[in-house]
Structures are given as structure tokens and as C-alpha cells.
Specification:
Blueprint lengths: L3 E4 L6 H16 L4 E4 L4 E6 L3 H11 L8 E3 L6 H4 L5 H10 L4 E6 L6 H4 L4 E5 L4 H9 L4 E2 L14 H8 L5 E4 L10 E4 L6 E4 L5 H8 L3 E2 L27 E6 L2 H17 L4 E5 L11 E4 L7 H16 L4 E5 L10 H11 L4 E3 L1
Parallel strand pairs: 1-8, 2-8, 4-6, 5-9, 10-11, 12-15, 12-16, 13-14, 13-15
Antiparallel strand pairs: 2-3, 3-7, 4-7, 5-6, 9-10
């Protein structure tokens, strides 16, 4: 398959953007696949109400077919067609956070094919705030199934060049625009029970959710690798976000963490291996390795969240064999801390060393 790469930039007029997205929307309407930017990461879009499109998404990504897809909508009215009921708490959350990086899970209507939901009787729905994403959804018929636009298991792409790297020749079109704003996937909340349950942490934090709907819970599988539970939302069961090099998280007193990582880096270098480090601003200058990435201050995890996937991709570009990351476990009560730690654990296959 030949993939058409369509650049969208500052030089585009509203008319040219509309024309490009009309072509992309027509591809999705006809059953094809289009990668596009959202405010979180790049998504791989297909017709959410077409079983064949869902199968194409799984095939293009090499994604397990029991890993549900998120349906993206652009209008609140579109929700009524694809869910059995809209709980009052969901309405409150939509009023507070839609359009935006929040995915909600509902009991699905019969019109939603099992192929889109991974065989579940629930459906995950999001309304992205990125203007290109919203326009593409409207051009595509209003319902776009869109997981991240990467090969399954690899870091989600925050830049168009990584979408091209993974999916060129596998899909019909890539809409290449500037880098995304947030850098991590949406928060996912299950609204099918009395108490909303967070299945994947993200930009919309537990504190923010609780301020709108009261009590919320965190699903145990977010930080627990030892579970046989079927995935109710994307990213819950399978290893994700993994770079080519082995990633290990190191926890402990900062000086001991730096000393341990430097010792490992020296040993790897002696063996002819290249080492990468994901460090906080506070510790950055202490590391000696082939590649050291500055994730920003430990006091503000937003920068780490935005940079994480790019760091993992850059390590691949730099042919890094072994990667060590400082732990963010002490930031779980800070905004993005839950999300950063969740993604690191997934990328590391839950390999954590305490020093």
C-alpha cells in the first residue's frame, strides 16, 4: 500500500485545510485509515461503525483484537446514538472536560460493532479538542475509531515523523502537522458503575474528576502487572510504549539512584553497549551516559509527560541498548504524576529496582 503524506502547516489557509481534511474524511468513509494529530498523541482513524475498518486498524498496528478502540466524536449529540444511556455523572464530566483529553466508558448500543470494542458490551468515547481532529471527525461521518498511530507496543507518536516511521505503507494517509500539545493519551474513566473508576490516568487527574463528580476510584491494574483481568480499556493488559532498548526504573534516595545508574552505565559502556537515562532537572547533571534526557523538574510533571514518548523514540534513533529512568512514584499525588508513572511502568514491563 502507498501511504499519502499530507503536510498541514502555518502556510495553509482555512480553505486548503478544509480541502485536505475532506479528502481524508472520504478515505475513512470508504473504509480506509488516516493518521491525524490530536491534543494527546497522533491517532489512527477508521470508521468506528464499520467492522472491516476496525479489523484494518488492528492489522495495521499489529494490535491484539481484544484491545478495545476509542470512538472519537465531535458533537455531544453523537453520543446518544452509540451508548445505551448517559449517566448524570457523565454529563457533568462532559460539561467540564469535553472537548478534551478525557475518555468515558459506557454500555454500548447495538450499532457499535464488537470489532470496535474488542468484544466487550461497553464502548470508550472521547471528544478531542484539537481543531484538526474535530474537523476530520465531522468530515468522516461523526464516528472515528482511533487508537494511537504507532505499531503496537511501541511508544505513542507525538511527532508526525514517528507515525511515518511506523505506519508508512500500512495505511492510506498521514496528516502531518506540528507536534501535539499534551504528549500522553487521554484519561479513561469507567462510568458503567455507581462510582467512576479510572482505568488509565492522564491529563485530567483524579483530583479534577473528583471535584466534579465526587468519589472516584483507581483500577488496581493501573500499577499492578500481575493480573489476568480482561482489558476494559486500551493499554490495560499488554506491554505498551516500549523502546527497543531495555528500560528499567530505579527507585530510592536520589544520590543512590544516580550512583547506581552511573555504575551500570559504566559497566554497559565497557561491554560495548550504549546507555540512556531519563533524569529530572534536579539530578540531570549527575549522570554520565551516552544519552541523558532532561524530563524537567520533579515538582512539575507536565514537562515529563510531554517529553516521555519523544525520549523513548529518540533512544531508538540513537541506538541506545539500555535505558534507566528515575522513578516518579513520589509524584503520584501531583497532577500528571500518576500518568507518567503508569506509562513508565508499562514501557519497562514493570521492571523496577530499589536502591
Amino acid at each position: 500500500m502507498q501511504t499519502t503524506i499530507v503536510a498541514i502547516g502555518d502556510g495553509d489557509t482555512a480553505e486548503s485545510i478544509d480541502e485536505k481534511l475532506s479528502v481524508a474524511g472520504d478515505i475513512i468513509r470508504r473504509g480506509g485509515l488516516v493518521a491525524f494529530p490530536t491534543e494527546t498523541v497522533y491517532g489512527l482513524g477508521g470508521d468506528a461503525l464499520c467492522p472491516a475498518s476496525a479489523r484494518k486498524i488492528y492489522a495495521a498496528k499489529g494490535r491484539p483484537s481484544d484491545n478495545p478502540l476509542i470512538i472519537h466524536i465531535a458533537e455531544m449529540a453523537a453520543l446518544e446514538r452509540i451508548v445505551c444511556e448517559i449517566p448524570k455523572k457523565a454529563v457533568k464530566l462532559a460539561e467540564a472536560f469535553w472537548p478534551g483529553p478525557l475518555t468515558m466508558i459506557f454500555k454500548k448500543a447495538a450499532i457499535v460493532p464488537d470489532q470496535t470494542t474488542g468484544g466487550l458490551d461497553t464502548v470508550a468515547v472521547r471528544m478531542p479538542s484539537h481543531p484538526l481532529a474535530a474537523l476530520l471527525i465531522r468530515k468522516s461521518g461523526g464516528y472515528v475509531a482511533a487508537p494511537s498511530a504507532n505499531l503496537s507496543g511501541k511508544p505513542s507518536p507525538t511527532l508526525a515523523k514517528y507515525v511515518v516511521q511506523d505506519l508508512d505503507g500500512r495505511i492510506d494517509m498521514i496528516l502531518a502537522a506540528d507536534g501535539v500539545e499534551i504528549g500522553l493519551e487521554s484519561t479513561i474513566v469507567d462510568l458503567t458503575g455507581e462510582i467512576p473508576v479510572i482505568l488509565r490516568p492522564g491529563y485530567i487527574t483524579q483530583k479534577m474528576l473528583s471535584e466534579v463528580v465526587g468519589e472516584t476510584e483507581l483500577d488496581i491494574t493501573i500499577y499492578d502487572s500481575d493480573t489476568a483481568q480482561a482489558p476494559k480499556a486500551p493499554g490495560m493488559k499488554y506491554r505498551h510504549y516500549a523502546p527497543k532498548g531495555e528500560l528499567v526504573i530505579v527507585e530510592g534516595e536520589p544520590q543512590r539512584v544516580a550512583r547506581y545508574i552511573n555504575e551500570q552505565a559504566a559497566a554497559h559502556e565497557a561491554a560495548g553497549l550504549r546507555t540512556g537515562v531519563i533524569a529530572t532537572l534536579e539530578q540531570f547533571a549527575q549522570y554520565q551516559a551516552a544519552s541523558v534526557k532532561n524530563a524537567g523538574s520533579r515538582c512539575d510533571t507536565h514537562e515529563a509527560a510531554k517529553k516521555l514518548y519523544t525520549f523513548l523514540r529518540e533512544f531508538d534513533d540513537e541506538k541506545i541498548d539500555c535505558i534507566y529512568a528515575e522513578s516518579f512514584a513520589d509524584t503520584l499525588d501531583q497532577g500528571f504524576g500518576q500518568a507518567v508513572m503508569n506509562r513508565l511502568l508499562k514501557a519497562a514491563g514493570h521492571k523496577v529496582i530499589h536502591v
